[in-house]
Prior knowledge:
Blueprint: E1 2-9, H1 13-25, E2 33-40, H2 47-57, E3 62-67, H3 73-83, E4 88-91, E5 96-98, H4 102-112, E6 119-128, E7 154-155, E8 169-171, H5 172-178, H6 196-206, E9 211-223, H7 230-250, E10 258-259, E11 262-263, H8 264-283, H9 286-292, H10 294-307, H11 312-324
Parallel strand pairs: 1-2, 1-4, 2-3, 6-9
Antiparallel strand pairs: 4-8, 5-9, 6-8, 7-9, 10-11
Amino acid sequence: xxxxxxxxxxxxxxxxxxxxxxxxxxxxxxxxxxxxxxxxxxxxxxxxxxxxxxxxxxxxxxxxxxxxxxxxxxxxxxxxxxxxxxxxxxxxxxxxxxxxxxxxxxxxxxxxxxxxxxxxxxxxxxxxxxxxxxxxxxxxxxxxxxxxxxxxxxxxxxxxxxxxxxxxxxxxxxxxxxxxxxxxxxxxxxxxxxxxxxxxxxxxxxxxxxxxxxxxxxxxxxxxxxxxxxxxxxxxxxxxxxxxxxxxxxxxxxxxxxxxxxxxxxxxxxxxxxxxxxxxxxxxxxxxxxxxxxxxxxxxxxxxxxxxxxxxxxxxxxxxxxxxxxxxxx
Length: 330
């Protein structure tokens, strides 16, 4: 069995070093061959040298350097997918580290159930720089990519949590059938766009591919203190709204009548969320109030992307947002 791990990276040389150290030190089953492709997305730091130095020193796996000039995580991942010559493929972000038995668990899942499953995901556990605040719960699955869904295996479906490119393992043949990641979507540089995982997951399920959540597949994700803030969460939600507008335009239009090019139901949806937020604030329920901010902030991001982005006002709004929350990407 051959596995290719694609690591998209942008100006995170030291974090990338930790990622590659984990990939090169984890135990590899004798029956498995591992190639790591580092897809450098226009880094201006020491990324190329770090990759080449480590590639010359490691044994047991192959590490390759690939430069991708088109800015965006989806472009970088797709560049790696195009040259991946493997049975199964995974993507690991440049601020993550795999567990010591990760290769062993991947090999076990696919060697024992090759005919039954097409993809597998697992836990993404945080390496926290500081203790999380008491209201952290709404941030976990999305903004922090803190994905722990229990210790029992279950099957992915339309109603389950999605599998993300930060921890998924896929048969290479999947990409031959449904294509690569949508390059309109995904993080660009260190911005807050996303949505590529949601679109890809929708394609997986709609195409009938079978996947399992395996709690023994564990990846660790660095979470700096600056992400454990309400400002970061709110900026992330705004980015979700912008991403949904792009998916609406370039993947699958949102169903329903529209008002000012925005689905009419979104106005009522956002208003309900705003009302819930005020109610919970009055009641002193911090977690519930923060959770309720989801709807109005996603709506604002959708509205901004539809009517403001690219115009003079949009540029002013973008500068204000960047001052309030430093763009940090994933």
